[in-house]
Amino acid sequence: MIDLTHLTLYLAAALLLAITPGPGIFYVAARTLAGGWAEGIAMVAEMQAGRELTRSQHGLQRTGLATTCSAFPMAARAMATRSVAASLVDGRIS
């Protein structure tokens, strides 16, 4: 069980990380100050579109790989064997 001191320190660190703005916020603020509120809104929309595109690409990659492995079990075994072999060669598995 975690004691109260460690829990308090953990929660304080988590809160600090949660409220600290990232580089995206600074970028939007700079573009808004330079070009007005319309340009700021456009930057927010652009950043959100990029996030959504990235999420959809990751989803398609996972779905495509899962479909390939279920349709071709031999391909799944080959990928697993290649991964283990590469790890042995690289020295990650001894």
Task: Spell out the key features of this protein.
94 residues; 4 helices; mainly alpha
Molecular structure report:
This protein is mostly helical and 94 residues long. It has 4 helices and no strands.
Map the helices and strands.
Blueprint: H1 4-19, H2 23-35, H3 37-71, H4 73-90
Helix pairs in contact: 2-3, 3-4
- Biggest β-sheet strands, sense, barrel: none
Along the chain, the helix and strand elements come as HHHH
Percent of residues in β-strands:
under 5%
Distance between the termini: 35 Å
How would the global form be characterised?
Answer: flat
Could you name the ranges where pLDDT drops below 50 across 5 or more consecutive residues? none
Overall pLDDT level = 77
Derived from helix and strand composition plus strand pairing, the structural class reads mainly alpha
Number of helices: 4
Percent range for helical residues? over 70%
Number of strands: 0
Radius of gyration: 23 Å
